[in-house]
């Protein structure tokens, strides 16, 4: 897994590439925790899954953990560019409704910033 992040306004954007399996889930969880700590009182995170083919339960756990902590801070988390496989996985795990989904970065940043 390749993970980079940057800010666009108040939104922290995580760009993920490659499969997120095994120990990558822990790396993702740690990266989310750092971003949540740095994000202040109302953290906004966008997860760009372009180039991510598959993820396992550790990656799903990292996403759910981030969602929980962000909700406690009255923040928001969104996803964009999820592959059909990841969308199916989120749906089967009944997690799709937790994450706002966006067609592109511009729409996501505009929505998450409000």
What does it look like?
With 114 residues, this protein is an alpha/beta fold. The protein has one domain: Transcription Regulator spoIIAA (2-Layer Sandwich), CATH 3.30.750.24. It is built from four helices and five strands. The chain has a five-stranded mixed beta sheet with strand order 1-2-3-4-5, with helices on both faces. Helix 2 links the parallel strand 3 and strand 4. 34% of the residues are buried. The model has no long low-confidence stretch (mean pLDDT 95).
Number of DSSP strands?
Answer: 5
The CATH topology label is Transcription Regulator spoIIAA
H-E string: EEHEHEHEH
- Helical segment count: 4
Portion of residues within helices:
40-55%
Residue share in β-strands: 15-25%
Integer average pLDDT? 95
Question: Per CATH, which architecture?
Answer: 2-Layer Sandwich
Q: Which key terms come to mind for this protein?
A:
single chain; about 110 residues; alpha/beta; Transcription Regulator spoIIAA; five-stranded mixed β-sheet; about 45% helix; globular
């Amino acid at each position: 897994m390749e993970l980079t992040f940057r800010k666009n306004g108040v939104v922290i954007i995580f760009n993920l590439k490659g499969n997120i399996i095994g120990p990558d889930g822990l790396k993702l969880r740690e990266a989310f925790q750092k971003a949540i700590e740095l994000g202040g009182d109302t953290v906004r995170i966008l997860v760009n899954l372009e180039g991510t083919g598959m993820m396992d339960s550790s990656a799903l756990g990292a996403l759910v953990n981030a969602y929980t902590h962000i909700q406690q801070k009255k923040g928001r988390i969104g996803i964009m560019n999820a592959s059909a496989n990841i969308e199916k996985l989120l749906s089967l795990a009944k997690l799709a409704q937790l994450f706002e989904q966006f067609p592109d970065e511009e729409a996501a940043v505009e929505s998450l910033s409000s």
